[in-house]
Each structure stands twice: as structure tokens, then as C-alpha cells.
């Protein structure tokens, strides 16, 4: 076991030297609310895509195609499972582990010594990570999916060896972010998650670490105070208001993912927070009944703007077919009733609209932005809810329904302010003009009020 571990260390270091990484490492911003580049302290707006099965379902040519598509759409983070199961094999048929034990990674010659070395599981992972780096994309890696730990198949001492392997193999690649956990409560296998988190921090002190929790939970429920936890991640989940019948009253929020962000934003010590898994585009409401309606582009936009303007430092998008890299020739099967293959689903409506959220936030002063619901004079509920955020010289207010609403003015300087409407659908502005910056002012978005007629009111200092 230890011989295998030592061998993988040297191979990982060699692979790094052969493929230097020009991206900057990431860090938590000085105020503890955002991410920034270590090299020049530039804002880093996390626009993530969920490519969970990328390493096991796609070959190199397909991985290149997927990553290029995401680069063109503005995504800069891919959330991916390293091991979905202990028996994980890549598309070339090569296994990740010996005897399905995380402590014995298969790194020499793979399953078949007659196959080219680049088809080996870990060499293929290296290739995809390096290809992503060349496109300016960071890889948010889940070491082991939570169901394997919950079932008792991973021991803390083995998890520690596995985390050492991962840290030593990838600590010199700059485009790595660690997502401990994997759709699981922290209390399910707590010793394992602590072993992975503390080992990654000890062996790889330069990369950010978080925890991907179960639906309708947040990493802060278990790990907020841990030294290895750099930022909190929420999974607001895939249920509608009516379907959220969880007994977890603390997080009984239905579709109101902004509530998770507000709660973690208020925690001490201050740490950044993000919704790392809201409802996916094209997936059935509640996941499991394929006869249910499907989440739409309008829904994923709503989750994005609601969470970011409530204080999140970025947003992770997901699509039903893409997250599982669905192919019609895949004999292992797929879940949740996919209707498209992954290569068609990468171009669905919502995926192309996420860049407008990123562009809007990066067009404004960045590190001074704070959530501020005191801007809203007539706060609505559920789909009529407005999220508001402001910087020193600007304010942003999102409406999902395009209803008329009123704002409390005077939150930014000046007797008058410049107002305009920003479309989350195409990123275009519609000018309103100068507006008095006193008292309460009414704003009427373009179009008739309805779900999905969403707009951002942009107010700028004159």
C-alpha cells in the first residue's frame, strides 16, 4: 500500500513539471466576503458548472469539447467528482483504486499494461485538469462522493492516506479547489470528513477548501469553525416550495435559496458563502419523479441573482444531462429522465445566460458590495421577493416577476442617480434616466408581470 502511495507522489510531481500552470492561486478577500487572485488581488467571481462525472464519462476529445464550451460561456469553475464510487473507472476502462480501497490508488500501468499510459485513470484526470487550466478554468474536486462514506466503506485512516495522495499529486497545480464531502450531511461520517479536510490543509496549504453538503443544508452546520474550511457552501436543493417537507426546520426554505446565504453571511467568524447546488436546468422538480415539471432557464437565473445579491461570492449552475454527462451509448445508465445528450445540453438556454450575472457583478466596484434589503420599500414573498445589493456608488435590485416596486432612496451619494434596467436574459441595458435620490421612488420594469420576466434595476451615482 505504501509503495503504491509513494509512486503516485513522484508521478504527480513529474506531471506538474511537464505542464506548468499559469493561473493564479485563489484566496479569500481581505474582508472575508469574496474570492480574489493571490497574484494581483483581482476579484474572482466564481461562475461554476456542475460536471460531476467528467473524469469517468468523457474521453479526452470530449473533455476538450466540454471545457471549451464552458470557457466560451464564461464559466471559470467546474465542480467534479474524483471518485463517484469506489469501483470508479474512466471511459477507457481503467480503475482508480486497487480492491476498491481509497488507500490504494492504482497509478502504475493501470488495469491493462498494454494500453497507452495516458489512458490510466489518474493520468486522464491530470490531462483534464491541465486542459482546464489552459482555458482559465479552476477544477473544484470532490475527493470521494458522500454515499461511499455513509455506507461505511471508507475508514478515517484510509481517507487520510487518500487525501495525502491527492494533496501531493495536485498541490502544485494552481487551478485546484477542494470540495470535501459530496451531497452528504457532515454528521454522516464525520471522522472521515475531518480526516480529509485536515489532511488536505496540512499537505496542501495553498488551495481553498470547502464542503459540499446534502440538499437543504450548508457546510456551516458542521464545519464553520474548522481551520481547514475557507468558505461555506450551500446546497439549496431541487425541491419546490410544496415539495420541501423536510423536518429540518432550520433550513426549511423551499425555493428561497437567498435565506441560506443570509444566514451564513451573518455568521462569525466571517467567511464567504456560495450556493453550490441549486435546482438544475432540465431536471424534474424534486428529482425523482420524471413526470414532474422541469426546472427552466428562468429558475436557474432566479437562484443565481437571488443568492449573489444576498451576499454570495459567486454561483454554481447545473444541467441535468451535463452534470451526469449523459450519452445514449452509456451502458451504465443515467438518472432523472434526461432528454438530451450532454453535447446538446451544454447549449441549453440557461447555460448561455449565466455569463450575464458574472459580467454585471464584475462591471461594478467589487469588494465593497454588501447585501442591503433596507433599499426595498415593499418587500414581496416567494417569487415576488426582491434581492438588493449595493456598493459605495451603485445599487442592484433583482425582480424575478418584473412587478412594479418601490425603493428607499438615498443609499448612495447624490441628489439624483442614474437608473437603468439590466436583462439577465441577454445582458442588455434599457436606460431609465436620472431619478431623484430622495424619499421613496417607484420603478416599473419593462413587460407584463409574470414569472421569468426578470430584471435587475441598476442605480449608479451620477
What's the β-strand tally? 22
CATH architecture of the largest domain: Alpha-Beta Barrel
Mean pLDDT: 92
Measured on Cα atoms, how large is the radius of gyration?
A: 22 Å
Pfam families: Apiosidase (PF13204), Collagen_bind_2 (PF12904)
Keywords: Hydrolase
InterPro entries: Apiosidase-like_cat_dom (IPR025277), Collagen-bd_put (IPR024749), GH (IPR017853)
GO molecular function: hydrolase activity
Quick take:
By secondary structure, this protein is an alpha/beta fold. It has helices spanning 2-18, 54-57, 60-72, 121-134, 146-150, 156-170, 190-203, 220-223, 257-265, 297-309, 320-323, 342-345, 349-362; strands spanning 26-28, 35-37, 43-44, 46-50, 77-81, 97-98, 101-105, 138-142, 176-184, 209-213, 217-218, 232-235, 273-275, 314-317, 370-371, 386-390, 394-399, 405-408, 416-422, 429-436, 440-443, 455-461. The chain is built from 13 helices and 22 strands.
Describe the structure.
The protein has 462 residues and is α/β, with parallel strands linked by helices. The protein has 2 domains: 2-362, TIM Barrel (Alpha-Beta Barrel); 372-461, Immunoglobulin-like (Sandwich). The chain is built from 13 helices and 22 strands.
